[in-house]
Amino acid sequence: MGTAATTGSDKYGPKTKYLMLVFVCLFTFLVGGFGATLFNLLQVTVANDLGWTAGERAFVATGYSTGMIWFAFFSGLVVDKVNVKRMWGSLLVALAFFVILRAFVVGVTLYYIIMFVSGMVVSIINPLSTKVITLWFGHKQLAVANGFLTSSNPLGQFTANIFALPLIGLLGGQWQTLYIVLAVFIVVLGVAIFVFGKNRKSIDAALESDQIKSADELGIWKNLKAVVKVPQAWCYLVASGVFLGLVYGGGSQLYVVLQVDPNWALDAAAPGIVTAMNNIGSMIMYVVAPLIIGKFLAKNYDRNYRLIAIICGCLSAVLMFAGVRSYNFTAICVIFFINGIVFGQIVPAPKVLMLRLPQIAGARAGTAMGIYLTLNRIFQTIITAIFGMVLAINTTNPTEPLSWMYMLYLVAPVLIIVAWVLDNRQKKAAAAAAPE
Asked: Which one, of 156, 115, 204, lies nearest residue 27 by Cα?
């Protein structure tokens, strides 16, 4: 395995992996960050311009997320077997076509179909993005490369929130034109991947494993069975699902609570500022945190990476609890910025630790990410619904149940600890069984 990986690195040269990282980050920035946020920003404007009712607008808004639920799992299985470059470039060109259609379609049903298919295509590409990272970056660089990938999303969100409306003004006040421009950028990216991108086989992945020695051990069903049999993987999958479910579920309700709770009674713009503070902190630390660990805590890196993630997970629960109970706008902004810094380690940690498992590594990263993304979507849907029901019951002081639900962030560090214990037990058992 090590020989294959080294050969692949020599064949493509040391700069290729950075080019592939740029491609992955640009996709995440354009589509996952800027594009998704642009749609949210323009929902009311589009509905008014096209003559939709509030119910029709809400119906169309569900299309993108619904499309994303169903295909990530199957995409993950396929990604480990196909030519990544060709699949990636082709899907981006297809996605650009559906983005352009948003500028011309008027009917509600057809617009919903366009958004559904867009979500479907993005869900197919998402496991592929992480697969690219594992193909080109090994154990020592994985966390940093993933940090750049992860931070590209909030950077795209931030850019859309700040610049989308001024850009529309520069484009003659037509939101349709901005969608066309976005589609052009996506097409250019897809073509650039076709022309300049490089393919790499799963068995040659830079994120190598001493437990996967030949291509004969890889296959759709072999990969799936290998991943689901690892208890540590399930710890990380559930840890991420619960944590991100709380992030998105709590985030959607936080906008409401900060306005309707009489102890807060903020205006409509204020909750966006609060969450922006969290996004700014996390966007920076997704990259900086693994760099700091790699630079100053490189000795016993694996232990230090887990330990800091556990501490950050616990701190995040306390910070969110304190922030929403502060009943002070300045205080919650400061606390959420600090929480964003803490997010920089705990949010990506379950994913990175899962990918570093020797049973998964780069060879089975697509399969693992297909399961990971599917479970994340399921947890987000369930937890968002639970948040909504709980807060609907308590309308006089919704901050109280919201703050206690944020304490469920503690599930993630607990499960990371459980996985750590299982790892140590397996290592001791393997050492005891090894011939002297």
From this structure: 156
In this structure, are residues 192 and 19 in contact, taking their beta carbons and an 8 Å threshold?
no
| 346-375 confidence digits (pLDDT tens) | 999 999 999 999 999 988 999 999 999 989
- Alpha-carbon gap, residue 135 to 5, rounded angstroms: 9
What 165-169 contacts at long range (C-beta under 8 Å, 24+ apart), as own/partner pairs, is 165/41
| 3-state DSSP assignment of residue 360 | coil
Can you say whether the dihedral through the CA atoms of 324, 327, 328, 329 is positive or negative?
positive
**Best CA proximity match to 354, nearest among 250, 246, 247, 226:** 226
Q: How does pLDDT run across 240-276, given as a tens digit for each residue? A: 999 998 988 787 778 778 888 888 988 877 887 888 8
Give the DSSP H or E segment for 95: helix 84-101
* d(C-alpha 313, C-alpha 316), whole Å: 5
What residues contact residue 245 under an 8 Å CB cut-off, 6+ apart?
376, 379, 380, 382, 383, 384
**Tokens 């069984």 map to which residue?**
433
DSSP state at residue 1:
-
Task: Write the single-letter amino acid at 387.
Answer: F
Pairwise CA distance, residues 330 & 30, whole Å:
32
Domain boundaries, the chain: 2-208, 224-424
Which residue do the tokens 């190598």 mark? 208
pLDDT of residue 1: 38
Same CATH topology for 2-208 and 224-424: the answer is yes
Task: Give the model's pLDDT for residue 89.
Answer: 92
> Token pair for residue 274?
């609060």
Segment 269-288 shows an average pLDDT of 87
Nearest to 135 by CA among 289, 12, 292: 12
Name the residue among 306, 362, 349, 410 with its Cα closest to residue 143. Answer: 349
pLDDT band at 423 (very low <50, low <70, confident <90, very high): very high
Superfamily covering domain 2-208: MFS general substrate transporter like domains (1.20.1250.20)
State which fold the 224-424 domain adopts.
Answer: Growth Hormone; Chain: A; (1.20.1250)
Q: What's the pTM?
A: 0.85
